[in-house]
Design a protein that fits this description.
The chain is mainly alpha-helical and 187 residues long. It is built from 8 helices and 2 strands. It is elongated and about 60 Å long.
């Protein structure tokens, strides 16, 4: 009998093992440092662990900044006039673009996948519209960007205060006093 069967855990690299471990902890809503529940959905630490680590993390970042190193701890020199290196900035930018596309797709699917006015279905041309025409007021109050807005809408269960419009209908509605020009055309 051959006992050289491979254990699936041994087949994982150290990085893959810890990535799986972190994903499991996050899915269960547990702190990465202790077994307490996280303070808020999306966080990785409970309130107690966050409080303990905050001063330490601030001091470490300040030391890296003083030495001219990337604040994220990758060991590279920070870009001139910045606190992060070019690689970390690029990596964060790529992550945000990927995250934005994923969240936008979820929102588009949740709101029917087409413009409510002209039935446009190309996802790149679709956007969320505030039905009550209060989008500028909401943006001023909470100072959000599209990525955080999509997160907020999905977390709220896609409320019916929004609708999906294409950019043309959305802008036309804005310029035409809250009514899309398509709706005022007579055929």
């Amino acid at each position: 009998m051959d006992r050289q069967e491979t254990n699936p855990v041994q087949a994982l690299t150290r990085a893959e093992y810890y990535k799986n471990w972190r994903n499991e902890r996050k899915a269960k809503g547990l702190c990465f440092r202790c077994d307490d529940p996280v303070a808020k959905a999306g966080n990785v630490h409970c309130g107690k662990c966050s409080e303990k680590s905050r001063p330490y993390e601030i001091a470490i970042r300040a030391q890296r900044k003083k030495e001219g190193l990337c604040a994220l701890g990758c060991g590279q020199v920070a870009a001139e006039g910045k606190v992060r290196c070019d690689d970390c900035v690029k990596s964060a930018s790529e992550y945000q673009k990927t995250e934005y596309r994923k969240l936008k797709h979820e929102v588009v699917v949740a709101y029917g996948g087409e413009c409510k006015c002209c039935k446009e279905q190309i996802e790149m041309l679709l956007t969320l519209d505030h039905k009550l025409n209060d989008g500028s007021i909401a943006r001023r109050k909470s100072n959000y960007n599209a990525l955080s807005h999509y997160r907020k809408v999905l977390a709220a269960g896609c409320p019916d205060t929004y609708q999906l419009l294409c950019w043309n209908c959305n802008y036309g509605k804005f310029r035409n006093g809250g009514i899309c020009p398509h709706q005022t055309l007579t055929t």
